[in-house]
Amino acid sequence: MLDPELLERITARRAELDEREELLAKELAEVRVERDELAVAERVFERVSEQLADERASAAPTPGQVGGRAVMLIPHRTSDVEETTLPPDYQRILAAVRQAAGPVMARQVGDAPLTPPAPPTSCAPCSS
Fold first, then answer.
1. CA 83 to CA 60: how far, in whole Å?
2. Dihedral class, residue 102 (left if φ above 0, else alpha if ψ from -120 to 50, else beta)
3. Count of CB atoms within 10 A of residue 115's CB?
4. 3-state SS of 17-85?
5. Hey, how many other C-beta atoms are within 10 angstroms of the C-beta on 83?
């Protein structure tokens, strides 16, 4: 004969496990949804990263040919470039602009003496 108290305990434990199974199934479904969302986000991130890399590559200056040599026709401008890394002609242009009392015309820059440029200082027209 079955003990009624034991049968009651088994039934109660079974109900607890059924409830826990339901909660775990719900949690598992939520985890799967979040995992799927993260997979989508990862794919979007990879696509955007590739597009940005392609845009940066296409925006980078391409070398030109002068005297059979590959040269940068216009140096690539970034905020961390020191003036001393610019080609001498560009340094001469900056020096001519600095020495001028006001706005500078291209002819004035072309007529400027071919002296070494002054040490780099802050140049309001050049820093824009």
1. 19
2. beta
3. 8
4. HHHHHHHHHHHHHHHHHHHHHHHHHHHHHHHHHHHHHHHHHHHCCCEEEECCEEEECCCCCCCCCCHHH
5. 16
State whether residue 128 is helix, strand or coil: coil
What pLDDT score was predicted for residue 64?
A: 75
How is residue 102 written in tokens? 């006001």
Place of tokens 């995992």: 35
Which tens digit of pLDDT belongs to each residue from 38-72? Answer: 999 999 999 999 999 888 777 666 667 777 777 76
Q: Contact at 8 Å (CB) between 60 and 76?
A: yes
* Per-residue confidence (pLDDT) for residue 121, from 0 to 100: 55
Task: Compute the distance between CA of residue 45 and CA of residue 4 in angstroms, rounded to an integer.
Answer: 61
* pTM higher than the cut 0.70: no
> 3-class SS at 86?
coil
